[in-house]
Amino acid sequence: MSTLKTVAAAVIACAVVGGVGFIAFAEYGQHKNFASISAKVDSADPAQVKRGQYVAITSDCVACHTVPGGQPYAGGYALQTPFGTIKASNITQDTETGIGGWSLDQFDKAVRHGIGTHGYLYPAMPYTAYTKMSDQDVADLYAYISTLAPVKHKVVENELPFPFNQRMLLAGWNLLFFKDEPFIATSGTPPQVARGDYLVNGPGHCAACHTAKNLLGGDVAEALQGGTLQGWHAPDLTSNPHTGLGKWSDEDVISYLKTGSSRQSVASGPMLEAVENSTQHMNDQDLQAITAYLKTLPSGKAEVPVAVAASDPQMIQGKRVFESQCEACHVSSGAGVRRMIPELRGNAQVNAKDPASLLNVVLMGADAPLTAGNPTGAGMPRFDWKLADEDIAAVQTYIRNSWGNSAAKVTAEQVKAARAEVGAKPWLGH
Ligand code: HEC
Ligand code: HEC
Ligand code: HEC
């Protein structure tokens, strides 16, 4: 019997015996031994440690396993999920509170198969993508992580409410949404595209943010066509010309990943962190590979909505707000200032179905990325205290429907909800 059938049979059996079978199955999965990694580990080999450090960069382990301003890899960073807060573990070499003394197989079981010290890991840890990492990369990463100085720092990972705090549930989640399969390049793909595919869908875990999630937090079928998390929208990365990278040249994508800005856009929020910790440190060959792969992604359904008419009362109000508050920087044609102020015209994020990032940036402002390639970024001021919900909604509708852009109107209710979500200050006017 294939494993798939075994699994299906297990699910049916559970229904019959009222869950007892499922728990037994879940227990079994938890204690299962996975094939040992063939690649060798030598933490005294500086070349392997160096390779492992690069793997840590491409997979951005530091992003979640470090609290801002805290000790690298000592854990405690809180990830907000729709089900509650999950904290990332301490993965330094401390034997009591970290992963000191772990074997390579134990490490592999956590990183690629989602089973850690407390049992099944929550998919907030992106093992769903890391499962595609090669044996060699995992061994190199282990060699590097083994050199991290121990930091004593106790983390309580799981503070979710019942029933979500029951790790056994994750066995069911894995059955539904986790394909524990190694990376296999599609046959006939050029090596550069295959490398990009590996980086994007394996270590780079781009889909963690750029693929929308269903109600249970599993990936929807429309891979890399945009997703929303923690008050930000991570846009479509396919070649969709309206909401995706269809109008971005290879140079634009590489520049964005390397410096956090391109002709079209400037990174903020979680992407700013991804650029600062991860993509800016990738070598040019890998950035080219990612770009080459993204360029092969077919556009999803290209639904270009009809633009709201300039005579619409909300558009008239929005234009007025734009002229008094935004035009000095973003320019009346929406063209911005090259590599300083992003162009709003033809901007995929501005055309996105979900205005979450636009609301976030206009309410809270944004610091431009500080990267080696772009050391003096400009900032976007915050408008939460300065503009009423109706004015923010109007200016959003205006930028989303001017200069050839077209996207759904933004309402004052959406602005109100976004204020609560991102923790904005109240409007000081009246
Ligand atoms: C998007 C955030 C995120 C990223 C990126 C991430 N992790 Fe995690 N990791 C977590 C969270 C959250 C947990 C705790 C999950 C839980 O307790 O169920 C965790 C748990 C772990 C554990 C299990 C620890 C234990 O005691 O069971 C290990 C090992 C680990 N991560 C290693 C890594 C490595 C290595 C990388 C980079 C390849 C990485 N993580 C990248 C969020 C992340
Ligand atoms: C932690 C979540 C997260 C991860 C992981 C992530 N992104 Fe993003 N990404 C975002 C968000 C949010 C934005 C929108 C940022 C903004 O509006 O300034 C974004 C924007 C982008 C953009 C600009 C798109 C546009 O139209 O403006 C590109 C290109 C991009 N990401 C590529 C990638 C690639 C490639 C990876 C994997 C190597 C990746 N991202 C991983 C969250 C993420
Ligand atoms: C002082 C100059 C300045 C003013 C005034 C200003 N902006 Fe910005 N804006 C910026 C800069 C710089 C960025 C890029 C910041 C970043 O993402 O790190 C930006 C980013 C944005 C973005 C995000 C674009 C993207 O690709 O993610 C939007 C949307 C935006 N501004 C809209 C507005 C609106 C609407 C107003 C008026 C209410 C406004 N801005 C006023 C400088 C300005």
From TrEMBL:
It is found in: Cell membrane. Binds 3 heme c groups covalently per subunit. Coiled coil: none annotated. Heme c 1 binds at C61, C64, H65. Gene3D superfamilies: Cytochrome c-like domain. It comes from Pseudomonas endophytica. Keywords: Cell membrane, Heme, Iron, Membrane, Metal-binding, Repeat, Signal. This is Alcohol dehydrogenase. GO terms for molecular function: electron transfer activity; heme binding; iron ion binding; oxidoreductase activity, acting on CH-OH group of donors. The lineage of its organism: Bacteria, Pseudomonadati, Pseudomonadota, Gammaproteobacteria, Pseudomonadales. The keyword Repeat applies. Its cofactor is heme c. One of its GO terms (cellular component) is plasma membrane. SUPFAM superfamilies: Cytochrome c (SSF46626). Residues 47-149, 191-298, 313-403 form the Cytochrome c domain. InterPro entries: Cyt_c-like_dom, Cyt_c-like_dom_sf, Cytochrome_c-type_DH, Membr-bd_ADH_cyt_c. Heme c 2 binds at C206, C209, H210. Heme c 3 binds at C326, C329, H330.
